[in-house]
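To close the chapter, one final illustration. This time we ask the reader to focus less on the individual chains and more on the assembly as a whole: which components sit near each other, and how the overall shape emerges from the parts.
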Amino acid sequence: MNDYKTTVGIEVHCELKTNAKMFSNSLNNYGGVANVNINEIDFALPGTLPTINQYGVELGIKAALVLNCTINKKVVFDRKNYFYPDLPKGYQITQARNPIGVNGYVEIEVDGKKKKIGIHDIHLEEDTCKSTHADTKSYLDFNRNGVPLLEIVSEADMNSPEEAMAYLEKLKELLLYANISDCKMEEGSMRCDVNVSVSKTDKLGTRTETKNIGSISSVGRAITSEAARQIQELEQENEIHEETRRFDEKQERTILMRVKETGNDYRYFPEPDLPPYYIDETYIDEVRKTIDVMPDKRRSIYLEKGISLVNANKLIQNKPLSDFLLGLEDIDLVIASNLLLGDISSYLNKTEKKITETSLTQAKLREVVMLLKENKITNKVFKDILVDLMETDLGISEIIEKKGIKTISDESALLDVITKVIEANPESVKDYHEGKDRAIKYLMGQIMKETKGQANPALVNQLLQQELAK
Amino acid sequence: MNNLELSIKEIHSRLVNKEITPLDLVEECYEKIEAGNHLNSFITLNKSEAMEYAKELSSQEVETDNLLWGIPIAIKDNISTKDIRTTCASKMLENYIPIYDATVIEKIKKQKMIIIGKTNMDEFAMGSTSRTSYFGSPKNPVDPTKITGGSSGGSAACVAGGLVPLSLGSDTGGSIRQPASYTGIVGMKPTYGRVSRYGLIAFGSSLDQIGPMTRNVYENALLLNTLVGKDHRDLTSAEKEIEDFTRLIGQEVKGMKIAIPKYFVSDIVSPVIIEKLNHVVELLKANDNTVDYIDMKYLDQAVTLYQIIAMGEASSNLARFDGVKFGYRSESSSTVEEMYENTRGEGFGKEVKRRIMVGSYLLSGDNAKTYYDKALMIRNAMKKEFDKVFKEYDFILGPTTTTVAYRLDENLDDPTKSFMDDVLVIPVNMAGLPGMSIPMGKDQENMPIGLHIIGNRFEEAKMYQLAYDLENKLK
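The assembled structure is written out below.
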């Protein structure tokens, strides 16, 4: 059974982060009270006309850029006609003939092997109403109707669940980092339909489509189970039919929804209400300039600066933290990333805040990292000042002063403590001179206790050795 | 009290001189309409609101620089009017009351004109006789046994019958010009993009255009002044500098070059109509204008193109009438599919269903390439053919229709006949050009005959100049 090759292609829909809907000026915001972000255009009242959200188009171009697509400079929309209660106009405005981007790719890495996954096209369209069903009634929420969507159609270039998952992770990372979409699968702002086929030969087998899978890991499991099902069918000499299926998480298998009608007829034609227009290189360049540093680039900077792969990936997965480090590449990123992923993350989790909602500035972080690096403060001090650092606008020295913390880094003050400890512990001093290692650790401990952990340990060690040698 | 028979200028001066008030005008409108023979030109009257507004205006100062201040107007029932029922002459929208005003309605209200009512038409503007209306046919004021033409039949009839001085129509394939010709009034379909379509219930989106229907050329230009302008809600509307369409009116038409396509005077046109056109040609020539009979390609393809493009677009535009959100819903259904079928089956009339089905077929699968895409190519070629002519000529002339208005009970059994009523006017919509019809005479039975003037894009002012000149000479 292992001689079957699995082939996977994925269609991803993601919602664009715009203020307004794609073809009307009501707000792009749903999830709250139903049917508040709606106007006569969303409701498809007779006589209304669509307009184009230019920022939506801009995000489409941005996506085309980060997904290495060729950009279609003619911006033009089509109507896709079908009847469904969640589709108020009876047609969806989409880009069937001239998608905004074509022939792109993303690079993935699975088990250390790099692979390019082709992107057939990406196109702009509008979302439908959200329907819910209760008893014998159905309800429509028009807030979602008209929300800008980007559909990303991959080539059938993936051959394993792992590759499919890596592709989705990568896509998510890119769209998130380019500020194109939130890509929250659990909230439906990113949705996947997966096409799977198996074959023993180079000729692709008949594919099935599994719709609306809830998470990236589910995509992997859905592919595994669907490929296994198809192989089993073929082994029993049954045919695979083109059909639409869904993945049942509990049963861990895909379930038939409907058999595909041959030649589903959407009667596409150019949207006559939206005249085509052209974009030029200058505009594309302007859009290019708005793109943040992409995750691959960030990852390579992190690794170059000595951050571990694990921590580098943790930072990438937490875009606000990674963004916070933009422009701080000259400081010690190992210390900085340890702070961000350690105490600062704990604080943020505990207080349920975003880093941008705190008083921590890049300048403050830069200063703290310098102080730690130069041993002018200890980790203990950092922990003590953390809350003030996050919640007040005070400078670091002001916080330290206010809290009465003595950052004992001036030698004379330290020397006083050291002398005192030496005088109080003649036994240990004797042990030290007899070559017992324990003794210096004990003395260090006593000094740190005296200084409430505020002394710089490296400096203490150096001064203690110096005093003991006297 | 016959104020409504006066010209707008005369009415205005009476208003300014406080001889009459807007309320007098509105009352006179409704008296005439209610006197019995209102020709079934209205589907909905806006009486109480219009009277109230007229009273309000009557207590205000007349805007002396606004000739249209306080003037009654009728609106075709496919233009969205807030709080006034807008039916498209269909059972589907029999009880539909819009929550918003079309852009042209906003403009008309800003001008302080008074909306008298919504006029009868072919259902969803699909037809050329106004006989597909769910509310019965309007009647031709010249001879009530005859059709008004369509689809803006009610808007033509109420102006021709003297019930209101002005009305708005819409024209997808002749729907302003052809009824104007049949009833003996002036109708202008402006350049595509000249007037915002926001609020015009779409039939063929790439062809539809709203335009003025009036008793004479000057008042037509005056009303167009109010309607035009770029609208951010309609991306197909054109950015143009504000102009006064009456500005060339009165200037003599001399030394102009006029083309008459041979197809427009071929044997498809009644001899009596050709005769009238010949007279116009003589008048023009007498004033040092050149008139050439020219060959133009594609004109005979126009009806076929129209059937493909307008019906294709219509099949999609009318998909929103599904019983889910507004309009008619059939109650006797147990599934959503059944509800769709019953709602659309019961809510739409025969002609509308026929066109939706033809349009859906034409866009289906490979047909889209065989028919729709090819039609767009020929449409483009036709456009270029017109551009070529306008490089050399100022105007293209011809008759508006091939015959005069026929009997209300004539040609009812042949759905393709009605398309032939528009054979001479459809090319203008295909090319997005402005076209207007003005009366050029009558036949032996006193039925009006229209002259069709086609201008280059955005040259409406020049068309009014010619139209006004001929209007005077033909008196």
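Chain A has 15 helices and 16 strands. The mean pLDDT of chain A is 91. With these observations in hand, you are ready for the problems at the end of the chapter.
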